[in-house]
Every structure is written in structure tokens, then in C-alpha cells.
Amino acid sequence: MYIDAVDLEVVKSSLSGIVQEMQNSLFRTGFSTIVRESQDASCALMNAEGEIVAQHVVLPLHIGAFPACCGAVLREFQSDIAEGDAFVINHTYEGGSPHAPDICVITPVFFQGELFGFCGSIAHKSDIGGPVPGSCSGQARETFNEGLHLPAVRYQRRGEPNRDIERIIAANSRTPELVLGDIRGQLGADRLGEKRLNELTRKFGRERILAAWERLFELSEAKLRAGVAEWADGRFEAERFVDDDGIDLGKPVRVHVVIEKKGDHIHFDFSGSADQTKGPANIRPPLVQAACAYTLMSLIDPRLYVSSGLLRAFSVTARDGSVLNPRFPAPVNTYNPTVHSVVEAIGAALADAAPGKVCADGSGSRSIIIGGRNTYTGKGYVQYEILAGGSGARSMKDGVSAITVNQSNAKIAPVEIIESEFPTRLVRYELIPDSGGAGRFRGGLGMRREYLNLEDARFSIRSMRHVIAPSGTVGGGPGGKGALVVNPNKEAKRLPTRYADYPLKAGDVFQLDTPGGGGFGDALARDPARVCHDVIEGYVTAEAAEETYGVVLRNVEGEWRVDEAATANRRARA
Asked: What is the pLDDT of residue 2?
């Protein structure tokens, strides 16, 4: 059925609005700081085949996760899905959740008694069991070390809840009230999506909505292909490395891509990547596909409408048994560093094909997890924080400081929330001078957070780029490395990039430094006035200004000023 351009735009905007309303509902009804403050969750609308028809991007990886999770529901319940049903799934291998803490809630949408589509939400859970609080062990050797796994199971039947499922989930969590509260918030967001989608369908009619969905698929694919067609044809190759897998310390994990581009077709071949790892650095193919889609969108047009049509515009090969296509039950829970490496390997490979579009490497992702039992309430708690670093510099701009990068799009929880909900105090929170990679355009700065622990607890970290620095591009310098140090002013202990279950004592202090972003271009070509401004703002030290940028500054009556003659001489010598 035909739908005209005006109605198509109205439907498109309405679908985006529905998903945004679902997400607002989820964020405002979330029980955990993970959902409520960090917003580590997203929502989507899907057709009856499980393809995404609308996703407002919070976490780009979920463009691959939602169809895989919905596909698992369809395989298991195809002939037994009724109005008012709801399903939950978090199994990485049977569905598409990035890791087990990301529980997906899916509800069917019926229109006039016929299955019409699905609403979905994915949100990270504070704890679903396993050997360590937070369920994200950096030393996991198989998925069975990563907490409770749910295949596609029915959570509600015609609106009636399955209390047995809730009892099983609660019995496997150190924070059952938070986990169940967040799941119920997801269900509420899905139900809101059902209502709004039915209202939209009644307004335009079932056939016109279906026609709009198919047209949106076609447009997403066509726009992505048109962008690819503008690039140079050829074979492009690059690689990035993850520090290690948490088990084989000191052994970097290779992510290698060969890109074949001809006309409007582009193929990503990751066959040269490392074999699947012993530790939890592996990722599944739905995330590889999502990372490719995200990178193409970033290079072509970040405002592209997000639908499964984007996934039709390219092809991917991920070798079976590799770190990007592991065999069950290989561990996957600290997947994000590997995804960042996929994104930045693609960017590096396409730097010549799409000049000026690619930025330097960013800080990657990291989270800290502290678990224990609160002395005052007697209840278990899990303090889970997503922390940011510097983004890579771009062809015309500096990187951004203390911001999540690439697909890690969550927020940093406010200090006031952390201190009011958990037995900890923030004693330092600041940018790290000179941590941004030097260049004509400077990388964003990493940040330092120092915590005073008030009760005995168990600490875990999953991070990246504590060993291998973020790369600069077009001659730019690398960003600063990250670090995690316990009791930096006493008997300091430096933890590896991934670590699980370190015993923190009351009174212990730990300091997390996050990496800075890489620089873009020659540092000696940076405008001296900008270098002076960086020194005034505390982004760059005066010593680094002269040593790295060749800019000599003088402090005149308390103000930094560029010594132009000395700078010209210094740069000429360099």
C-alpha cells in the first residue's frame, strides 16, 4: 500500500516520539541508580518479525540486541503469543543481550486481534547472582560464572504475572527489590508503547502503518548506501587491541578488520581477529553487526533514522570460534572494551576512504562495582557506576573531556546520589591535566575520581586502556592511560584493567584515572593562543605546552602569555 511523503513523516516522528516516551517512563520509574541516573537502558518498537521499526538511540548496540532477543521469543512461542503477554530474556547465546545483566522485556502488540508488532526494553540490572556482586566478574571463564541466565520465558500471561519467574530472579540476586523494580518499570514502559502504537494505528490504519514501516526500512538502507557510495572504492585494513581478557594478563586481544568497499556495497571481515578468549572479552555477532551500523551512521549522518533497514546496507563476516563469534559457553560479561576496539578499528580503516570524518581513539568504557551489606539496613547493596574519559579529537575540533564515548552513551551518576545511597564518599573529582592526546586538535581529558570506602566491601572493575593508550590520528599523539590504585597515599596497590572481588576495608581509598582521547594532527600546528588557553584552564601544563606543543609561555603579572619569538624559535628547532 502507498503512503505519501507527508504521512510518512508524521508516522516517523510519531514512532520516535513513542520510543522517547517509553524511555522517559523507564528512566523515571527505575529503582536502581543504573537505570534512574546512568540511564543504562533503551527501548524500541519492532514489527511482527522482530525487526526494529523505531529506536531512539541511547545505547546503539541494542539495534543488534533487540531483533536477536525478539527472534528468540518468536522461535519459542510463535504459536502461543496472546494479547497481554510479556516475555523476559537475558541469554546472550539464545538471544542477543550483550551480557546477562542486560535483561530484555518484550511485549506483543495486537491490533484488532492480530499480532502486529512488539515493544521492547533492555536495561542493565544491579545484580543477577554469580560469584561477585554486580555479576560482572573480570575473571569469568564461562557464562555460568556470570549469573542467572534466562532463555525466552513468559513473564505475564494475558496480563497475569508469573510470580514464579519473579521468585527465581529474586532468589538469584543480592538486590532483589531493585532488580524486580527495574523489570516492572520496563514492563510499564512496554505497556505504554503498546497503547501509543495502537492509537497511532487506529489513526492511520493497519495497512498504511505497515507500508510506512517498510518504507522507513528502505529509506534507512538507501541513505546509508548513498553515504557509502561517496567514499573511495578499495580494500582497507586496520586493527586495535584490548589490554587483555582478565585471565591471560599481559596478552593483548587483537581485533582486526578488512573492509571491502565497491560502489554502495561495503563488507566487514573480522576473520583476522583473535581466537575466543578464556576471559570475558568475547562478544557475539549481534553486537558486531550493531557496532558496524553505529560506526557507519557516525561517519555518514548521526541523524539517520534508526531501524533494521540500516542492517541491510552492509555485510559482516565474523569467524566462528573467534573473539567476535565465540562458541558457548565462552564468557562475555565485560564485552564493551572489545566493541570499542571494533568501532575504532573500523574508523582507522576508513580514515583514507572518508578523510576528515574519522576522529582519534577515545577513552573506551569502564565501570566500577562495589558490593556489600549495609550496616544500617542489613540489606545487600551494589554500587555500580559507569565512568567516562576523554573523546578523541576531530578534524576541526578538540575532543570532549569526561564524557562517555562511542556506543557507551550512559551518564555519570551525580556525587550527591552516590553518597546518599551507598557507604562511600567522593574526596576528589577532577580532570587530569595533559591526559588529552596532543595534536593540532587536542584529545579530551580523562578524569580522576577518588573514593573513601566507609564499610567493608567487595570491589570489581571492568575497564580498558590502562596498558594500551588511545591512538591519535593524522600525526596526533596518544591519549593518557587509565589506572586504578587502592590506597594511593599508603601501601599503594595497582589493580589490572579487569579485576573481580578485591576486598576493600572500611577506610580504604581507591583512585580511578580514566584515559584521555587521542590527538588529531601535528601538535606543532596547534594555534599558540589555544595552547595558552589550555594552560589557563588547567587542561595542559606550561611544561607540556613547551615540550609537546613548542609554545613558550611567560607568566606576566599572574597571567599566562605567549612569547611569540621564543615560540617561533622553539618550533623551528622542533
From this structure: 75
Helix (H) or strand (E) holding 86: strand 86-89
Confidence of residue 97 (pLDDT cuts 50, 70, 90): very high
Residue 546 pLDDT greater than 90, yes or no: yes
Burial group, residue 314, by CB count within 10 angstroms (0-12, 13-18, 19+): buried
Locate CATH 3.30.450 in the chain: 5-221
CATH no. of 5-221: 3.30.450
HSE (CB half, 13 Å, CA atoms) of 573? Answer: 12
Contacts of 445 (CB under 8 A, 6+ apart): 390, 401, 402, 431, 432, 433, 435, 436, 516, 539
pLDDT surpasses 80 at 56? no
pLDDT grade, residue 375 (50/70/90)? confident
- What is the spatial distance between Cα 228 and Cα 427, in angstroms, rounded to a whole number? 48
- The residue with cell 582478565 is 246
For the whole model, what pTM was predicted? Answer: 0.95
pLDDT on residue 374:
82
Q: Are 311 and 295 in contact (CB under 8 A)?
A: no
Query: How high is the pLDDT of residue 355?
Result: 84
| Kind of pairing between the strands at 315-317 and 265-269 | parallel
Q: Name, in order, each residue with C-beta under 8 angstroms of 253's C-beta and a sequence gap of 6 or more.
A: 241, 242, 243, 244, 245, 274, 277, 281, 323, 338, 341
Q: What distance in Å separates the CA atoms of residue 149 and residue 270, rounded to the nearest whole number?
A: 28
**Phi and psi at residue 300, in whole multiples of 5°?**
-100, -55
The predicted-structure confidence for 407-450, as pLDDT tens digits, reads as follows 888 899 999 999 999 999 999 999 999 999 999 999 999 999 99
Contact 482, 466 (CB under 8 A): yes
Give 446's contacts (C-beta < 8 A, 6+ positions apart): 363, 389, 390, 401, 402, 431, 432, 435, 436, 479, 480, 482, 513, 514, 515, 516
Cis? peptide before 326, omega within 30° of 0: no
Contacts of 349 (CB under 8 A, 6+ apart): 236, 237, 238, 257, 258, 259
Half-sphere exposure of 257 (CA within 13 A, CB side): 29
The set of residues, in sequence order, having a beta carbon less than 8 Å from that of 308 and lying 6+ positions away, is 51, 52, 53, 63, 67, 217, 220
Q: Which residues, 6 or more positions from 243, have their beta carbon under 8 angstroms from its beta carbon? A: 252, 253, 337, 464, 465, 466, 467, 468, 497, 498
Query: What is residue 323's predicted lDDT score, i.e. its pLDDT?
Result: 98
In Å, how far are 244, 286, 318, 367, 465 from 278, measured between CA atoms? 10, 20, 18, 21, 19
